[in-house]
Specification:
The chain has about 475 residues and is of the alpha/beta class. The protein has 2 domains: about 160 residues, 2-Layer Sandwich (Alpha-D-Glucose-1,6-Bisphosphate, Chain A, domain 4); about 290 residues, NAD(P)-binding Rossmann-like Domain (Rossmann fold, 3-Layer(aba) Sandwich), CATH 3.40.50.720. About 30% of the residues lie in helices and about 25% in strands. The strands form 5 sheets. The chain has an 8-stranded antiparallel β-sheet with strand order 2-3-4-5-6-7-1-21, with helices on one face. The chain has a 7-stranded parallel β-sheet with strand order 10-9-8-11-12-13-18, sandwiched between helices. The two termini are about 35 Å apart. Bound molecules: NADP nicotinamide-adenine-dinucleotide phosphate.
Length: about 475
């Protein structure tokens, strides 16, 4: 039985007591675990102390949910604590958390000694999959911790900015950018505090369900501006019986928000649409057109942003292909991957949306936006794999057969794929950048540079390694002091 060692180290620009207090609250574990792992805290007694038992549920692999019980072996505030797996997927798991006050803040060190069950089979699973999954989980944790403790500017006349969809990929990045610039951010969510994730604690959450209007217009009281970046759960795979459709959420939801914003006296609207929105397009882009129409006709100065394919550390599209590569040893595609796309980096979208809130040049404008390069889907995935250091073949798929196979899946409550979803994924997405760049000049991030900020093995705010002595390919990455 081999014992493995994971080490992660990160510097946070906050005092040790504050950082320790965050980690000493087990309810924060769900915030820093990748959403795909479906983490759920089951224990109600969670006051940290030696001997405390904590139960949670996780999904280590898609479709496989299991219980994990750990207990707190040592607890020494603010220097550290140790949790040990009592029952769970590993044969053994001992996780030491250490906190050290250093120049510039607090260094967080995680050391985990773990082993897998099933002898050689477990070791094979470790080589093929577990190792890379663990590295990815700890990189995600590090990025989330950095976001939660991110500093914000102090400015003279901050706006109060609402972000509908601020718990999601695009809205979350916009909320972070708007807060970084010194504005006060209020995020509208229909899930409540469990959806907070990487949003810092000074971001207020207000309950709004855009499909029923619950919480509106009161939740918009006092807002100077509103950003709308809505999508239904598991988009673009619709589940009509559960009301998860483009028309119900993107179209009708935005109509409700625009009407409520008008009656609440909101002074500016920024809407995240999609490249292709048109009255005669497929129904997902017709829904976007309906939403755009509500925004245009609201009487509120607006900016409509129509992005192509957005990529970034928290996207669920390009990252899904990388997830397949880690899990399956190959990257399956839903067509031949020849469609042309101009992928745009999430930071560029966040900056544009934040500019749209205040820049007079953006008022009452519709901007199409993509990245600076147009490439085939296959080439984009190839570059992402190369930068992530993953060698896997890309396996093209026959779109008509995949759509046929996806047909019965529409009966599932949360279909992993639908025939329409396949068409959505396979559609080209390119734009004319001229009108945006003429009016709001800016440099857009080249694909390789954007991908490198989060996919390169040494990228990110932490150094993370597993068995570095046994792995000659691991080089010493630059880390916190
Ligand atoms: N991702 C891309 O590549 C891309 C490209 C072009 C355009 N866009 C546009 O960007 C927007 C956001 O996309 P995304 O990728 O960020 O989606 P996402 O990560 O799934 O986020 C969707 C957001 O919508 C909110 N939401 C869903 N149902 C709601 C309800 N009933 N009431 C209130 N809020 C609700 C969710 O909040 P709660 O669950 O917390 O309530 C969540 O914050 C979409 O309009 C999309 O068309 C995205």
């Amino acid at each position: 039985m081999a014992t493995h060692h994971l080490h992660a180290s990160q510097l946070i620009n906050r005092p040790i007591d504050e950082v320790f207090a965050f980690f000493a609250r087990p309810e924060n574990l769900g915030r820093i675990t990748p959403p795909a792992m479906g983490f759920r805290q089951l224990s109600t007694d969670i006051a940290m102390r030696p001997g405390l038992e904590l139960d949670h549920r996780i999904r280590p692999l898609p479709g496989i949910s299991m219980r994990w019980r750990s207990w707190i072996e040592t607890y020494d505030p603010p220097n550290g604590f140790t949790d040990v797996q009592a029952r769970g997927p590993y044969r053994s798991w001992v996780h030491r958390h250490r906190f050290t006050a250093v120049d510039g803040g607090t260094r967080i060190d995680d050391d985990i000694e773990y082993s897998l069950p099933l002898g050689p089979l477990g070791e094979m699973a470790h080589r093929l999959n577990v190792r890379s999954q663990l590295l990815e989980i700890f990189r995600h944790r590090a990025r989330t911790i950095e976001a939660i403790f991110a500093p914000a500017s102090a400015i003279d006349h901050p706006l109060t900015v609402g972000v509908a969809g601020g718990t999601g990929f695009v809205g979350g990045a916009i909320a972070a950018e708007v807060r970084r610039r010194g504005h006060r951010v209020v995020v509208l969510t229909h899930r409540g505090d469990e959806a907070r994730g990487p949003l810092p604690d000074d971001v207020e959450l207000r309950h709004v369900d855009v499909t029923t209007g619950e919480g509106l217009p009161d939740a918009l009281a006092g807002m100077d501006a509103l950003v709308v970046a809505l999508a239904f759960r598991n988009s673009p795979m619709e589940a009509p019986r559960r009301g998860l459709t483009f028309m119900a959420v993107d179209a009708a939801g935005t109509e409700r928000l625009a009407a409520a914003a008008r009656s609440a006296g909101v002074g500016r609207l920024v809407y995240l649409s999609g490249a292709g929105a048109a009255p005669d397009a497929r129904h997902w882009f017709r829904a976007k057109w309906r939403a755009e129409t509500a925004v245009r006709e609201s009487g509120i100065p607006f900016t409509i942003i129509r992005p192509t394919w957005i990529y970034g550390p928290r996207d669920v599209s390009l990252n899904r292909f990388l997830g397949f590569a880690r899990l399956l040893q190959a990257v399956p595609m839903t067509n031949l991957g020849r469609q042309q796309l101009a992928p745009v980096f999430i930071d560029d979208i966040a900056r544009l949306a934040a500019d749209g809130l205040v820049d007079p040049a953006a008022a009452n404008q519709v901007f199409e936006v993509g990245g600076p390069e147009t490439l085939s889907m296959r080439e984009i995935i190839r570059r992402a794999l190369r930068i992530a250091g993953i060698r896997r073949p890309i396996v093209p798929g026959p779109a008509p057969l995949i759509k046929l196979a996806a047909l019965p899946l529409v009966l599932l409550p949360q279909p992993p794929l639908t025939p329409d979803g396949v068409d959505f994924i396979n559609a080209p997405a390119t734009v004319a950048l001229g009108p945006l760049l003429d009016r709001m000049p800016r440099a857009l991030t080249p694909l390789d540079a954007g991908l490198a900020t989060y996919l390169a093995p040494s990228a990110g705010p932490a150094t993370v390694s597993i068995d570095p002595m046994a792995d000659p390919t691991v080089r010493a990455a630059p880390g916190p002091a």
